[in-house]
Every structure is written in structure tokens, then in C-alpha cells.
Amino acid sequence: MSARFIVACLKNACLTVLFAYQVLILVYQFQGALQSYYFHLGAVLVVASLVIISLTLERGRGARSWLRLSLPVAVLVGSVLSATYLYLNVGDIELRQPFLEQADVIAGIVIVACTIALTWLVWGAVLALVIGAAVVYFFFGDYFPGNFNFKPPETEIIISYLAGMGGARGVLWGIPLSANTLFLIIAFGGLLKGTRILELFNEFGRLLLNVSRSGICYSAILASSLIGMVTGQAVANVALSGSVTIPAMTQQGISRERAGAIEVVASLGSQLIPPIMGLGGFLMAVNLGVPYVEVATAAIVPAFLFVAVLFIAGYFVASTTPSLKTRREKIDKRLIIWLLPSFGVSFLTLLTMLYMRYSAGYSALWAIVLLVVLSWLRPRAYRPTLSQLWDGLEYGVVAAVNLGLILAGIGIVVQVLVTTGAGFDLGRTVMLVAGDQVWLALVLGMLISALVGLGLPTPAAYALIAIIMIPSLIDLGLEPIVAHFFGFYFAIFSAVTPPVAVGVMAATRISGGSFYRTAAEAGRMSIVSVLLPYAFVVFPSLLAFPAIGVRGAVVCAALIVTALYWGASVYGTFGRPLGTAERIAFLAVPLLCIAMLVTGSMIVAVALVALGVVIGAWNLSVLRRSREPTGSPAGS
Fold first, then answer.
1. Integer Cα distance of 136 and 108 in angstroms
2. What does the pLDDT read at residue 559?
3. Which residues pair with 520 in a beta bridge?
4. In a domain, 102, yes or no
5. Do 62 and 137 share a domain, yes or no?
6. Is 434 a member of any domain?
7. Which structural domain, as residue segments, surrounds residue 226?
8. What is the structure's pLDDT at 73?
9. Crossing angle for the helix pair 3-27 and 386-420, nearest 10 degrees?
């Protein structure tokens, strides 16, 4: 048997064991919490290692291939040995920590090192360097100057913190969230692929194209948003839904860069959409100490505004694509009829159970059962094969494992920032620069969030921002939920922030378009969305759904009008080609929106909406006159 076959069998076996274990532990708690967390962490490390080894073997053989295998193989062995030791001895270690034995210390060092190494292999060097720098600071804080000078404790104590000995901290900080909340939800997202639901969204795109030239854009936005809120990570969602939506858009004549940009912005916005909001929403609930339902409810208006802005951008993209026209596309109506119930029933069950405050894991389990059972009740032509189901489950479990790895890695950083007080010192430094100026603090917070998020997955970026920036914003008088939404919103933009823009990179690999032109298109589509977090700060009622009131409704209308006229100005069309003077004049609306946010004046908000209506009416009259016949020829 070849090495590739053996590794594939091991990987599939471990995937199956991990999925079965998570279902079993959800139904029947047969062991203690820390034991369960160490098992989950060990399984995450083992599966991630086997995935890396499998991919390396598939890419080729030779000396270089075997050299690349050395690190993931070493990590695999280290993960198995250290996680097994900690799992079997968790009770004794909990009793004697922080006075650890030599074997305890070695196991702790190995599991931390394996976590950092795998983070590098899976998520790239940036996140691994951040984690490594935090560990170095924990050990050598006494060499740092000023407020960041920190006297490190004994090595045994440091290891007990970093390796999660005695509590859910360090590498175990986010494992409860991964194991108890997110794992089965993300597995459900993978099974949406395995049960052919992506084909359903593709048919919806064809259907929408029959009634609107923008339909293919709208379909891509809906598909990416719905799938992305379940997968929980922008880059993973670009790879999953983008493999369908980007080719579908380019085939209809949309440029590669614009198709990639629509997919990226929709994928990052999906993390704002309730009721699931990916990993970030659950992290926010933990940080706020409130039920997740409260966070999901507060996200309804922000999500609506973000999607509205993106739909407006989709309209202008379609309007400036000459080859894209309303056309009669052949629709597989039977596919829609047979696939829609399995998606609709399972997804609505998940939403309903979350709203009724069942645990996320339990809700996802029922959604998975209904999705698979209803998929198998379809006619043979629309029924998923066992191979497709396995591919979907594998995709979902690997995505869940990768997010669990993020939580393990970022848990190390969180532990260091909290234990050493470095997070507080960083926030205090920002406060000193901003003084009492809330707007300056907000702008600094936006810039720092963008810098922190460069090259980091959204959950990692938000976890750091929640420690470094958000407490400072709360100290300046912002309500906690407002401050967290502000920070989280800019954390998700890390996927489109050059020069890294990991989401754009993923999209260009599918589209074959230019990286920088795709990033520019994504920025053009989402620039109005950057104003939305400031609107939450100035008008907190936007986060108080359903009690947003008249003021909130007017502000929502003002933001939508702003997106409409920004699009008309930068794309140069508004039902008709616009002249240069008109495009410049239309920029008055976004400027008025900025004035509304700076002053917080409802008079400005009402004036903005009124101006938008007046300009719209004038443009409509010009459009109608241009379509009227010029008159009969003389002498007729």
C-alpha cells in the first residue's frame, strides 16, 4: 500500500471519529469538561496534521516533498503523544498545578509548539508570528521597556497557563466554543455542499437573470451570504461558494475582477448576518457575557444595511456590463422543487431552535439529520451520492478543525495579553493619543483594527481587537455592544485590506483576475459599508432591533440613499450614462452622510433623504425625456 493511501485512510478514520465523538458528547456527557476539551484539541491537531500530510503527498514526490513532510509528521507525532498524556492525566495535573512534574511541562511545551507550527502551516506565517511573539513576551517580558516591562513567573506557571492546565485557558481558551457550539454548525455548512444545495443557488441565479440583468449578481450575493454565515470564515467561504458563483458571473460577461470582488465582499459580510454570524458572533456573546440570541438580534439592522449596500453595488456592476442582458435561461424547475425542501426545512429548523435558545450544537445536529434524510427522499436524479455526502462532511469537518485551530492559537495570545496586562497597556496608549476625543479614538480604532487584521482570519483579528481596542472605546462612553460591533465590523474587513487581503487572494485563484484590481473593485463596492460602524456609534438604536424607532428608520434610509448615489458617481451610470459634472454633483450625498455622522443631527439625516428623493425624481424625468420620440418629420 502507498503512503498516500495509508494517510488518506488515517485522515478519514480520524474525521469520522471526531464527528462521531462530537455527536456522542453532545447527547451524553460521559466525561469531564477538561478531558473533553483535551480530546477535542488533540483531534483538531491530528486531523489538521493529516490534512497537511495528505496534501503534500498529493502534490508530488522527491526529496523536496519528503522534506516538506518532516514538519507535519513531527507535529502529528507530538500532538498524539502530548494530547494523549494530558487527556489521561488531566485530573492529577489539575490537582497539582502549578507545581508540575517534568513530564507535565514537556507535554505542555509540545502541545503549544504543535499548535503554533500547525497554525503556520494552515493559516500562514502572520498569525503564527503573532502567537510566537506573545509566547516570547510571556517568557522575556522583563527585557521590554516602559509600561510593557513584565516580570515573568516561573516556567512551570507559564506552561500551565499556555497549555490550559487547570482550566479552559491558553490553548483551551476557545476550545469550549469550538467543541460545544461551532463544530456541528460548520459541519452542517459542509453538508450543504454535499447535498447539492449549491446547485440550487445556481438555478436561482438563472431564474433571477430571467427577470433582471442584475440577477446573476444577486444570486451570488445570496448564495455567499447564506453559506458564509454557516461556514463562519470569509476565506473558506470564498473557496466553497466562489467555486460556483465566480464562474457563473464570468460566464455571463462580468469581469473576473468584479466577479471576485462581489464574492469576497459577500463572504465577509456573511459574518454579520444573523442568526449564525459565523464564529465572530459567538465570540462576541462570550466577550459581552450575554446570550447569543441578543447578539444575533442586534445584528439584524447592520446585516440588512450591509446586504442592501452590496445589492446596490451588484446593480451598478450589472448596469456597466454591456454584455449582461436579461435573457431566457433554461431553468431546471424540478431541481428547485426537489432541493428546496431539504435546505428550507433544515435551515429553518436551525434558526428556530437557536431562537428558542437551544444550544447551537443541538440545533445543528437536528439540522444535519433533517438535511441528510430529506436529501435521500429525493428522486434518484437529484439525490446526493454517498461520495458527495462524504465530500461535504469532510469539507465541513476540516473547516471546523481549521477554526478550532485558530481558537487554540489565538487563545495563547489572549492568555498572554490578559495575564501580563499588555492588552490593557496597548489600549491605554491609544487612549492617551486620543485624549477625550471620541471621533479620534474611533478613527484610531479603525486603523488599528485594520493593522491587527492584516493577514489574520476574522475570528483571530476580532479576539485581539476585543482586548486591545474595545475596552478603550467603552471607557470613552460607548455602550459595550456598540463598541464590540464597531471592532468586529472592522475585523471582518481584514479579508479585503491590502496588501495582504487573504479573501481577495482566494478569489483571484478561482477567477484568474488581477489581485490589485479585484481589491480595488471590492473597496469600491464596500466603501459605504465603512460608514456603517460609525452610524452604530452615533445612532445606537440601530442595534436595538426591533425598537429602532423613527430616528433609526430615517438613518437607514439615509445610508441606503448614500450607497445609491455613491454607486451612481463611481460607476458613472444611473439608468443612463452620467456626465462628469453629474458624477461630481452626486458626491454631495456621501459628503452629507459624513456630516450626518459627525454632527449626529437628525435634521441633516432628513435633508439627506430629501435630497436623494429630489435628485432621483429629477434623474427619472431626464431619463423619461431621453426615451420620448423626438417628434414627427416635417410635412408628415
1. 16
2. 92
3. none
4. yes
5. yes
6. no
7. 176-413
8. 92
9. 70
Q: Are 96 and 185 members of one domain?
A: no
Check if the beta carbon of residue 383 is closer than 8 Å to that of residue 341: no
φ, ψ dihedrals at 573, nearest 5°: -150, 150
Instruction: Indicate if 69 and 181 belong to the same structural domain.
Output: no
Rounded Cα distance between 497 and 492, Å, is: 10
Which residue's entry shows cell 446547485? 199
pLDDT at 171 (0 to 100):
93
The total number of structural domains in the chain stands at 3
Cell numbers standing for residue 534: 460609525
Asked if residues 407 and 457 have their Cβ atoms less than 8 Å apart, the reply is: no
Beta-carbon contacts of 552 under 8 Å, excluding residues fewer than 6 positions away, are 301, 539, 541, 542, 544
pLDDT digits (tens, 9 = 90+) for 210-263: 777 777 788 788 878 777 776 666 777 787 778 778 888 888 788 888 988 888
Between the CA of residue 466 and those of 64, 196, 623, what are the distances in Å?
41, 37, 49
| 573 three-class SS | strand
- N- to C-terminal Cα separation, the chain: 90
Whether residue 227 contacts residue 241, with contact meaning beta carbons closer than 8 Å, is answered with yes
What share of residues in the chain are helix, strand, coil (percent, to 5)?
80, 0, 20
Q: What pTM was estimated for this model as a whole?
A: 0.81
**577 bridge partner residues:** 573
**What is the Cα 487 distance to its own chain's centre?**
14
Sequence-distant (6+) residues with CB within 8 A of 39 are: 21, 31, 83, 87
Side chain identity at 550, as an amino acid letter?
Answer: V
**Which spans in 377-501 are helix H?**
386-420, 422-434, 438-453, 458-468, 470-475, 480-492
Q: Which residues contact 385 (CB under 8 A, 6 or more apart)?
A: none
Q: For the segment 512-564, what is each residue's pLDDT rounded down to a tens digit? A: 888 888 888 888 888 888 888 999 889 998 998 888 888 889 999 999 999 99
In this predicted structure, the answer to whether residue 351 has a pLDDT above a threshold of 90 is no
